[in-house]
Amino acid sequence: MTGSRRTIWHVILWLLITVLGGCGKKGPPLTPLLIVPAQITEFEVTRLNDRVYMEFKVPEANQAGDMPADLDRVEIYALTTQPALLQPSEPFSEDWLELATLVASVPIRPPLPLGTTADDADPEPVVDAAQVLLTRQGDVVTIVEEIAPDVLIPVTLYEPEVAVAAASRRPQPFVSLLPLAPIRSYVAFGVSTRNREGPDSAMLAISLVDAPAAPAAPIVSYTSTSIQVDWEAPATAALPVQGGESAMVGALASTSVLAGREPSRYVLYDVTKLTTTDTAKPEPLRIPSTALSFSEEGITFGIRRCYALRVLDVIQGFEIQSAESVESCIVPIDTFAPAAPTGLTALADDVAINLTWDDNAETDIAGYLVLRGRTTDATLEPLTPEPVVETTYRDTTLEPGEQYMYQVMAVDTAAFQNISSPSERVVETAP
């Protein structure tokens, strides 16, 4: 081997030793990875009279996006404060959390091991029996808090001089110095199995102002195809501002400095369709509206229906629903007769008179009664003791050469069958 080749091999050997020797050396320390549940983004808070409903979806992933979430429980905290016109808003912080009250701690069922499903035939238990009924990741949960006297007591977050100093640094509009009702704010977040808190949800608040007065019971009526619910605006309701000319002739036009109160809206509930669990938030029949009536198409006779009403007001920027009105219940009874049949014709052949008529449009027709009489006698008697299903009838009980008069009546399927008015009369001579 020549000298040049030895030199090349020595260089290669030195490089290999250097690289391999450096593999065992420690680099700079990495930032520890904290695994925490993802933020609760689907979070809603609604006040119905003296109850506050908190709804949220349990996270299914960690903050980094990996699934399933390392999640032991979801906690909801609330804090009542006394807002002031000169007081800055208070974001979520450790100080806020220290003063807040733990409203609920919802234990979360551990996820199934990787590669298994709830439908596996393997009899080996994948979760503890006590955990089977726990809330799972991805579930939507509703928590209810009653507005009790202790909830109404506000906590001071700022000393008065701090609030005034903060407010003095920004321009203040002219506002009415009316006292504001306390507000109650809510925050939810997941907690990992290592007791690490995930990011806090959006902070949502409700006002603790007195709820609107409950309205009177609605009035329920029905037709053959729909249910009608009507009600009157209570005396305490805020009415929509009506346009038009000024009541004072020659009065100057003006613009209000402060925004007027929003008109009261009404929330209608079908009580017979509401979930009976105590924590389920009642779902209305429609979006709250200022309308004083509601019509529901489609009706099932013989089934009890009950309706109740709430007033929804916006006070100091917060939506608040009143207590529920007294229920109004009704059991619709089918007392609506079908329409009279049309298109009746009579045609004689060698031995009978053949009748045909149009099918009624109603969907609850049980059949048709055929009436017959002589033209010399105005009284028509039932020719068929029971309704016939078809829209044809062949009359063979005839006297040759006699004239006969016919009519048809429709009969429905109601418990107490309703009979229509008779069709127009037709006359035909027997063969």
Structural class: mainly beta
CATH topology of the largest domain: Immunoglobulin-like
| Mean pLDDT across residues | 82
How many discrete domains? 3
For the largest beta-sheet, the strand count, sense and barrel status come to:
4 strands, antiparallel
Number of strands: 21
Please give the count of helices: 3
Query: What CATH architecture of the largest domain would you give?
Result: Sandwich
CATH class category of the largest domain: Mainly Beta
Order of strands, widest sheet: 4-3-6-7
Descriptive overview:
By secondary structure, the chain is mainly beta. The chain folds into three domains: 43-114 and 128-170 and 178-207, Interleukin-17 receptor A/B, fibronectin-III-like domain 2 (Immunoglobulin-like, Sandwich), CATH 2.60.40.2150; 211-235 and 262-333, Immunoglobulins (Immunoglobulin-like, Sandwich), CATH 2.60.40.10; 345-429, Sandwich (Immunoglobulin-like), CATH 2.60.40. The protein is 8% helix and 29% strand. It has helices at 3-22, 94-99, 160-167, and strands at 43-48, 51-57, 73-81, 101-107, 140-146, 183-191, 204-207, 219-222, 226-230, 265-270, 293-297, 305-315, 318-321, 328-330, 345-348, 353-356, 365-374, 381-382, 392-395, 403-412, 426-429. The strands form six sheets. A four-stranded antiparallel sheet has the order 4-3-6-7. The longest helix is centred in the N-terminal third of the chain and has 20 residues, at 3-22. It starts with a helix and ends with a strand.
